[in-house]
Design goal:
heterodimer; A: mainly beta; six-stranded mixed sheet; B: about 120 residues; mainly beta; seven-stranded mixed sheet; four-stranded antiparallel sheet; about 0% helix; globular
């Protein structure tokens, strides 16, 4: 079965430190991978995507993610965390011609001052 | 970037009544629109997928007679929750996809509370 896993329910990072939010996937074929962020009581905002090409993808707000085909991972990273990065982060993979997304469970990122 | 709006942003209705939620793509034509439901501290659950001018495709377990979806134009989709019950209380989010895009653009969500 095709799936996306975000193994951490919550990640705590001190402000200024690097952060990583993990995502692994299990799909057939070539995946299109996405990261979205959700602030409380808000819809989702697109951060970045991997379709093809360079494995290191840069996105909004200083975030980046690295596509690793051998490890089937697409971890989200940022070199220096801000308190305002605190939010819920979702990894998703696009699967079929109707462009439905398969979603990870979400990871709550807490950045402490 | 592409903008999707939802209206209303929050609504309270009495049990047994119906409520309509609108989803509009403001600056692009949404060939496909998706409706999601999100429970507190949980991921998004896809309810249905609709292509403009076609009947919506509902996910397993979603009652199509209860959650009526209309995608009459390339910029507007509506979700009507009929005969609402308190268990229908949730956060409903729509998204749209353009004709040549792999991305979904999300609305800000609608908080529905059924009393």
């Amino acid at each position: 079965a095709q799936s996306v896993a975000q193994p951490e329910d919550q990640v705590n990072v001190a402000e200024g430190n690097p952060l990583t939010v993990k995502c692994t996937y299990s799909v057939s074929g070539n995946p299109y991978l996405f990261w979205y962020v959700q602030y409380p009581n808000r819809g989702l905002q697109f951060l970045l995507k991997y379709i093809t090409g360079d494995n290191l993808v840069k996105g909004s707000y200083g975030f980046e993610a690295e596509f690793n085909k051998s490890q089937t991972s697409f971890h989200l990273k940022k070199p220096s965390a801000l308190v305002s990065d605190s939010a819920l982060y979702f990894c998703a993979v696009n699967m079929d011609s109707n462009y439905q997304l398969i979603w990870g469970a979400g990871t709550k990122l807490i950045i402490k001052p | 970037g592409a903008v999707v709006s939802q209206h209303p942003s929050w609504v309270i209705c009495k049990s047994g009544t119906s409520v309509k939620i609108e989803c509009r793509s403001l600056d692009f034509q949404a060939t496909t629109m998706f409706w999601y439901r999100q429970f507190p501290k949980q991921s998004l659950m896809l309810m249905a997928t609709s292509n403009e001018g076609s009947k919506a495709t509902y996910e397993q377990g979603v009652e199509k007679d209860k959650f009526l979806i209309n995608h009459a134009s390339l910029t507007l989709s509506t979700l009507t929750v009929t005969s609402a019950h308190p268990e229908d209380s949730s956060f409903y989010i729509c998204s749209g996809r353009g004709p040549s895009s792999y991305e979904q653009y999300f609305g800000p969500g609608t908080r529905l509370t059924v009393t």
